[in-house]
């Protein structure tokens, strides 16, 4: 991809230029659950100035052309079994640890800062618990049911399994969107203590890892399995 155009799909941009992930995260452009959207459609959804976004993205890529996302670069070349092992090691295990760490941090600041920030922290924690429950169940389903089936492309209803996971990814995207709204895109209040700031920083880190996790599945692994299942 020598020149980025508005008609290019987000997932194609990210696969060719993984550096774009940081820019899309910064602009809150969903390259994972809606990776098949073109840059034009994505900017329309966010009501962003298309010429400005296109210009900024090109400049961002130019400035960061030497930066590689080894996670994606290496992932693309793996076989299906190794792709699954990569997802479990680099995302499932890490996300489980992050969920527990964040739960402790949010529980702490909910108690300490409830007087001044009770409403927003209550909403934040409620949505986080929804994400935690949804994600832990989703990871278990992938590991115990779906991923083993993916290693056997002759299994029955493999495409329906992919569709089910994609729907769960969409639901996760909606939850993350709600979390971003209530936290003002993970911006702590001016009187936030270090624990408060760390909780929001970890929430941001978690959501960005989930985005990358979903991208690898939706835009690389699932597309590969769909192609192979038709051969």
TrEMBL record:
Pfam families: Hemerythrin (PF01814), ScdA_N (PF04405). InterPro entries: Hemerythrin-like, RIC_family. The keyword Flavoprotein does not apply. It is found in: Cytoplasm. One of its GO terms (molecular function) is metal ion binding. Keywords: Cytoplasm, Iron, Metal-binding. The keyword Aminoacyl-tRNA synthetase does not apply. GO terms for cellular component: cytoplasm. It comes from the Bacteria. Residues 90-224 form the Hemerythrin-like domain. PANTHER family: IRON-SULFUR CLUSTER REPAIR PROTEIN YTFE. This is Hemerythrin-like domain-containing protein. It comes from Anaerococcus porci.
């Amino acid at each position: 991809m020598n020149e980025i155009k508005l008609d290019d799909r987000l997932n194609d941009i990210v696969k060719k230029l993984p550096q774009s992930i940081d820019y899309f995260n910064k602009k809150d452009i969903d390259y994972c659950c809606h990776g098949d959207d073109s840059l034009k459609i994505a900017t329309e959804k966010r009501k962003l100035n298309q010429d400005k976004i296109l210009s900024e993205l090109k400049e961002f890529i130019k400035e960061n052309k030497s930066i590689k996302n080894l996670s994606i670069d290496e992932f693309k070349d793996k076989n299906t079994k190794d792709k699954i092992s990569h997802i479990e090691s680099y995302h499932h295990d890490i996300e489980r640890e992050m969920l527990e760490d964040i739960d402790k941090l949010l529980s702490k600041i909910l108690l300490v800062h409830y007087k001044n920030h009770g409403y927003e922290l209550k909403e934040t924690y409620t949505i986080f618990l929804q994400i935690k429950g949804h994600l832990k169940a989703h990871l278990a389903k992938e590991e115990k049911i779906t991923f083993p089936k993916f290693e056997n492309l002759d299994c029955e209803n493999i495409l329906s399994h992919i569709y089910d996971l994609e729907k769960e990814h969409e639901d996760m995207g909606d939850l993350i969107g709600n979390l971003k709204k209530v936290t003002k895109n993970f911006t702590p209040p001016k009187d936030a203590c270090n624990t408060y700031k760390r909780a929001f920083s970890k929430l941001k880190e978690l959501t960005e890892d989930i985005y990358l996790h979903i991208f690898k599945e939706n835009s690389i692994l699932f597309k590969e399995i769909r192609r192979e299942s038709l051969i």
